[in-house]
Amino acid sequence: MTLVVVPVRYPLSKHSRRTLGRAIEVAREREAELTILHVDLYQNGKKVSRIDLKDAVESAFGRIENARYVVRTGFLVEESILDEVAAEEADAVVIGTKQASRLRRLFRRFTDNPDIDGYLRTHLDCEVITVEGARAR
Q: What span, in angstroms and rounded, lies between the C-alpha atoms of 54 and 56?
């Protein structure tokens, strides 16, 4: 089965809701499983549980079929996202434009290629769907 991963903030921000809404659409269109990912940063000292994340998402969107809720802890959000996408062998990741910009900066540190979609396709065989405003591109 196809897998779509969507990283979100907790509590859900306006941008996270928009990105999550698009991810839900993509998962439904593709009849895919959806992994909703939140990354707790070690340095922030906050603990978000899967139940907290699930309750927030279901409060905003209702029950989502074939959804899995994941909370990871790490130092860098971007690295944790890439680790999850790779570990789960995701087919697509849906990210907001802010996250895309952060990923581009991270890639620039390690490579000369800020093309996230190309990098993920080459290294992880993954499509990147970027949500900007109310539209996906």
A: 5
Q: Tell me the whole-structure pTM to 2 decimals.
A: 0.84
Q: How many Å apart are CA 44 and CA 23, to the nearest integer?
A: 27
**Pairing relation of β-strands 92-96 and 135-136?**
unpaired
């941008």: which residue's tokens?
15
Which residue shows structure tokens 């990105």? 19
What does the alpha-carbon distance between residue 49 and residue 69 come to, in Å, rounded to a whole number? 9
Distance CA 137, CA 131 (A): 6
At residue 87's C-alpha, the angle toward residues 44 and 125, to 5°, is 115
Q: Among 64, 42, 39, 44, which residue's Cα sits nearest to residue 54?
A: 64
Weakest-pLDDT range from 8-17, 26-35, 123-132: 123-132
